[in-house]
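worker-3 :: picked GIY-YIG domain-containing protein
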Amino acid sequence: MAPAGDAGRPGRFFGVYVLYCLNPQHLGRIYVGFTVNPVRRVQQHNGGRKKGGAWRTSGLGPWEMVLVVHGFPSAVAALRFEWAWQHPHASRRLAHVSRRLRRESSFVFHLRVLAHMLRAPPWARLPLTVRWLRPDFRRDFCLPPPPHVPLAFGPLPPRGFVSRPRASPCADTAPELEAVCTLCAGAFQDEEGPLCCPHPGCRLRAHVICLAEEFLQKEPGQLLPLEGQCPSCKNSVLWGDLIRLCWMETEEEEESELEEEHWTDMLET
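worker-3 :: tokens ->
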């Protein structure tokens, strides 16, 4: 399983992607997979099984990674999303999605499934981003993504992390407040990045768990908030924006990739 420390750590990358086959003999085939490093993963697929690619893509390339959904709070959350996207008719969350139509390509069908997934629980509450790595492959979704799920275009920033300026909202916080959470007054651990309100002048610094609990007071029964009122400046803030804006020291990426084949039998939706 993924290390417990992965959950809720802003800056870590967990993505679920779509590969599109450019081989004229297999043109249009697609593959849905999980990755912590998109650049390396597509190289593995094009290198075949001996290079770490999946058996279903081996020898059929070249493959192009055209879309990736990222922003998952943990590897397990991303892997559950991947499994449901691969097997929509086995997922009770997607029982309402009709099967692939006769003239519907596999690519268009999986985009239709994705559109429904982004609006179905529990995924509808995640601070996800849908990124078209190849904008020329873009298609309109049959259902627009929720307002808190942005569409992005172009390659990921270096190292696969969501970029943000180094001049973070926390940069102007008074030194005496830097080491403690605004809500619980507890210290931040060395590997933990505080959440900071993006509104100018706000001095909020909070543990992820503390702020989530604060927001969830108005959403009982939910595990992850969508938005809430900043306890410091009282402005409305999207949870996804807080996560995307949270600054962490860039850490070394994991050298080994979690393989989806090892997880499928362990995960259920």
